[in-house]
Amino acid sequence: MKIYDISWPISQATTEYKNKGTIQLAAVKGFDTDGVRDSIITLGTHTGTHVDAPSHFLRDGKSIDMINLDRVMGRAKVIDLMTVHESISGDDLARYEINEGDIILLRTANSALGVNDSFNRDFIYLDSSGARYLAEKRIKAVAIDYLGIERGDPEHTTHITLMKADVVIIEGVRLSHVPAGDYFMICLPLAIIGLEAAPARAILMSESID
């Protein structure tokens, strides 16, 4: 079995959405002075690889601690969309076999961007037709390889379409090292009560042996 860690590594240099600059990693005890190490982490709920809960955009939506974990674990498919420019549409997705209950990971040109690069406002995103297509397919979750799944839409149509269809949104996965194909995915957001999102550790497992 091969395991792919697809999590965005976090440091104070990590790319943040729109370069917010919220990440702080501070040592409060050091080994030389205290005989132990202890640190404080400050970061936004949408830092690195993270899961959006419906409460992010739906007034009465579930918070992150209420997400059923079976929505972010299970049969997964990495789809190669490296040649897509600007946005991913329903027509783009219709070229692939997508089944009810799948977790779909969108590998795009975003995967070529470095983990510490300045935020790229022209990232590839999922447009509203792509969101409708995935919602109609009744997938469990969709993951994209950048810190947002939509851009430039004041109505947040992509998010809302997916959330109303109970499709979990995972943003900020790293897929440049992952071949397209079928996997088993585990993506566990932190169980923080009442919030609209949380960072997560995400892995893909393949039965292939290298």
Features:
single chain; 210 residues; alpha/beta; Glucose Oxidase, domain 1; 4 helices
Q: Give the overall shape, derived from the CA principal axes.
A: globular
Find the CATH topology. Glucose Oxidase, domain 1
Strand content: 25-35%
Tell me about the largest β-sheet.
7 strands, mixed, barrel
Total beta-strand segments: 12
Order of helices and strands: EEHEEEEHEEHEHEEE
Under CATH at level 1, the class stands as Alpha Beta
Description:
The protein is α/β, with parallel strands linked by helices and 210 residues long. The protein has a single domain (2-8, 45-206), classed as Glucose Oxidase, domain 1 (3-Layer(bba) Sandwich), CATH 3.50.30.50. It has 4 helices and 12 strands, in the order ββαββββαββαβαβββ. It has helices spanning 31-34, 90-93, 128-137, 157-164, and strands at 2-5, 24-29, 38-42, 50-52, 73-80, 87-88, 103-107, 125-126, 141-144, 168-171, 181-189, 197-206. The protein has a 7-stranded mixed β-barrel with strand order 4-10-9-7-5-11-12. Helix 3 (128-137) packs parallel to helix 4 (157-164). The chain starts with a strand and ends with a strand. The mean pLDDT is 96.
SSE blueprint and pairings:
Layout: E1 2-5, E2 24-29, H1 31-34, E3 38-42, E4 50-52, E5 73-80, E6 87-88, H2 90-93, E7 103-107, E8 125-126, H3 128-137, E9 141-144, H4 157-164, E10 168-171, E11 181-189, E12 197-206
